[in-house]
Amino acid sequence: MAKATVVVDAQACIGCGACVADCFPGVMHVNAEGVAECLVPCLECGHCVAVCPSGAVRIEGADMADVEPCDGASLLSQAQMLHAIKARRSIRHFQNRPLSDDVLH
User: Fold this and answer.
1) Of 30-34, 56-60, 71-75, 85-89, which one has max mean pLDDT?
2) pLDDT digits (tens, 9 = 90+) for 54-75
3) In the CATH scheme, what architecture does the domain 5-87 have?
4) How many Å apart are CA 100 and CA 27, to the nearest integer?
5) Which residues of 26-36 are buried (b: 16+ CB within 10 A; e: fewer)?
6) Where in the numbering of this chain does the 4Fe-4S ferredoxin-type domain appear (predicted)?
7) How far apart are CA 55 and CA 12, in angstroms?
8) Alpha helix (H) ranges present in 52-87?
9) d(Cα 8, Cα 18) in Å, to the nearest integer?
């Protein structure tokens, strides 16, 4: 399967660097012309699309229907995020044996 490609509309890009700052793998940058670009395959996380204030970024080859704009007001504070992480409980009982093919498929 081919990786998706980040495409930036050079006319719409304002060169603010929001997509670069939010790119977890660090594959985006603002070029000498002041336009954001990504020259390598991305992870398709959609962060760059969500944070772009001018709507200049899209991911070609990925279904971006579920990506919502990030307005900042809906983000959790550091304390709220820490509380959410600590409040979530997950207990797993792993066993020291291989899984059968029926379980895996």
Assistant:
1) 30-34
2) 999 998 877 767 667 667 777 8
3) 2-Layer Sandwich (3.30)
4) 39
5) ebbebeeeebb
6) 4-33, 42-62
7) 7
8) 78-87
9) 13
